[in-house]
Backbone:
């Protein structure tokens, strides 16, 4: 193997990942770009001026809504997923296989069916077109991931650490804060991150349950794309991807098998 | 202060079959009590119950004559040290040792000086700032011990603290625990499945077999005066032969033995003699004759399997002069024989 081969591969992979973003950047910086030209014929900041100018308030509003919905969804998903994963990881009980299958269902069943089915119920419960409703429907997709990540964490977890801490005088609350939390932190972050990103990219379920009242970024993005203004759609796409990318970079060190497995 | 009374304790997991049944034990203040039993007999389970980590099905636990059965672990003055060191990987050595004090909201200079004292006591000076994964197995075990000692519990529960160590470290740690135990005079329950370790470490030993307490006593009592063949067998007893009492003598295939004990006549008894108590010599006419079946050199002694009047005996002989198929003479000193009524 040539000495330059390995570094080249290492650099090629991120490059390949970045490739699809290049047209987005080009589009957002173009003024006119018609077939069959390879690049934009005229460059311009029109799209960005629009995004930060006349459409700015609207986009910031939906950005905030997206952050709000995704953050609450992620926290709720982790808070519910952790005890569930703990039960599955640490204890054997009747019907465990069946229950784990049930948890998988929202992932297997097409999201459209889930959202449509829930919509009817949510209308009755007057949860349709509310933030709570949207967060709940996002949770149906995020929870399985949280539960499965935490299941993995807890099946490699030694509860004797908690017993030792108890015997040394820790109360139940102290055990949660001082033992369980630090032990499971990498898993919690991964579960939270998955949930955040899943919620962040939800379009269909938000549209159905939110009914146009809850306008998260993807809803906004679709509206802009439908108008056929590609430079603007490109700019908004970048704004859509950036926060997710930042969250991902921020927690990158927690990704990867070793940290999820936890400590035994 | 720290006396312990265990009354009628029965323990099980998740309503299953009881692991320990009707267990009674008294440990006096400052005593080091060895809890001995084969693997899986429920020693850890008993310690967990004493520490309050599992609730007994029945019975009660008294510390200094106060019933603590219903108290949660953190309210009991009994601290358990687990078989594995279980050091918290996200804390350094000093933080691990100070954990219990932190849980009791003891902070500042007092905590620091306590930590330093205990580091010195467990010969860990200078390791306070080390990460726990930088320590050797023996050092980890000592941190785990220090973490409990710093709380000065009334009762210290040690679950096989030496089982993860190699032979040299074991001896070192053994001496350290004994030294600390004498210095601090903490009532200690020392769990082990190793009979020699229990004999060495404890003032008294309690032996558990099949979920029941079989014998409690000084190490010499258990070793030389086992109450039944199972206890004898656990301490390495391997020679068992049967016979009957007739005319004040114990009649066996290996000959007649005068008995001092007050025993019932015409009833079968099982006798045992320790392999090192049988005196072996090259064949002569005076004593019992036997033939060596095979030998096993063990270093300080050689283990010999000897066939003698239809009974197979194991003899420990110093040195290595005996060979297989050799004819030898055996002398069984009557005062070293222990008799148990044979359950028919
Ligand atoms: N959490 C548990 N759930 C169910 N059964 C258990 C549990 N822990 C232990 N047992 C059972 O209880 C019995 C006693 O176990 P325990 O750990 O107390 O044995 P031990 O005497 O400490 O053995 P060792 O010397 O190997 O540590 C065993 O048969 C074991 O299978
Ligand atoms: Mg054990």
Residues:
């Amino acid at each position: 193997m040539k000495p330059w081969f390995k570094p080249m591969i290492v650099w090629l992979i991120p490059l390949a990942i970045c490739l699809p973003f290049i047209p987005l950047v080009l589009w957002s910086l173009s003024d006119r770009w018609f077939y069959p030209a390879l690049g934009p014929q005229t460059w311009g900041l029109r799209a960005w001026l629009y995004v930060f100018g006349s459409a700015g308030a609207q986009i910031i509003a939906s950005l905030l809504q997206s952050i709000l919905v995704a953050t609450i969804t992620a926290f709720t998903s982790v808070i519910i997923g952790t005890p569930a994963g703990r039960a599955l990881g640490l204890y054997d009980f009747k019907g465990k296989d069946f229950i784990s299958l049930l948890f998988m269902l929202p992932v297997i069943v097409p999201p459209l069916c889930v959202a449509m089915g829930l919509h009817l119920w949510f209308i009755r419960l007057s949860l349709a077109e509310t933030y709570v409703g949207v967060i709940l429907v996002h949770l149906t997709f995020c929870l399985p991931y949280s539960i499965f990540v935490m299941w993995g964490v807890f099946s490699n977890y030694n509860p004797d650490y908690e017993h030792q801490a108890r015997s040394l005088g820790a109360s139940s609350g102290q055990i949660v804060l001082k033992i369980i939390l630090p032990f499971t932190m990498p898993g919690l972050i991964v579960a939270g991150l998955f949930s955040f990103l899943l919620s962040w990219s939800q379009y269909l379920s938000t549209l159905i349950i939110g009914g146009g009242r809850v306008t998260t970024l993807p809803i906004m993005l679709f509206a802009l794309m439908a108008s056929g203004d590609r430079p603007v759609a490109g700019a908004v796409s970048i704004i859509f991807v950036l926060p997710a990318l930042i969250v991902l970079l921020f927690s990158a060190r927690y990704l990867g098998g070793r940290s999820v497995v936890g400590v035994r | 202060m720290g006396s312990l009374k265990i009354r009628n304790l029965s323990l099980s997991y998740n309503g299953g079959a009881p692991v320990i049944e009707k267990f009674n034990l008294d440990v006096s203040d400052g005593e080091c009590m060895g809890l001995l039993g084969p693997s899986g007999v429920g020693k850890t389970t008993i310690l967990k119950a004493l520490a309050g980590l599992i609730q007994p099905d029945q019975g009660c636990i008294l510390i200094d004559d106060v019933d603590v059965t219903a108290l949660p672990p953190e309210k009991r003055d009994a601290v358990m040290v687990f078989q594995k060191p279980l050091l918290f990987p996200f804390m350094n050595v000093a933080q691990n040792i100070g954990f219990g004090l932190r849980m009791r909201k003891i902070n500042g200079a007092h905590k620091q000086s306590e930590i330093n004292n205990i580091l010195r006591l467990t010969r860990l000076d200078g390791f306070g700032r080390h990460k726990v994964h930088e320590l050797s197995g023996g050092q980890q075990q000592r941190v785990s011990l220090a973490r409990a000692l710093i709380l000065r519990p009334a009762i210290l529960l040690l679950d096989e603290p030496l089982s993860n160590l190699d032979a040299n470290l074991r001896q070192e740690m053994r001496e350290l625990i004994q030294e600390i135990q004498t210095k601090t005079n903490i009532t200690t329950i020392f769990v082990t499945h190793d009979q020699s370790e229990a004999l060495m470490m404890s003032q008294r030993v309690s032996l558990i077999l099949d979920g029941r307490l079989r014998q409690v006593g000084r190490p010499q009592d258990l070793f030389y005066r086992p109450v039944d063949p199972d206890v004898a067998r656990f301490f390495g007893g391997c020679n068992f032969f049967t016979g009957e009492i007739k005319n004040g003598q114990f009649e066996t295939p290996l000959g007649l033995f005068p008995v001092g004990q007050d025993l019932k006549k015409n009833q079968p008894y099982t006798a045992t003699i320790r392999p090192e108590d049988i005196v072996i010599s090259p064949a002569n006419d005076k004593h019992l004759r036997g033939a060596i079946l095979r030998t096993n050199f063990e270093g300080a002694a050689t283990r010999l399997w000897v066939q003698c009047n239809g009974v197979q005996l194991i003899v420990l002989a110093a040195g290595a002069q005996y060979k297989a198929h050799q004819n030898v003479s055996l002398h069984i000193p009557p005062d070293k024989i222990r008799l148990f009524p044979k359950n028919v």
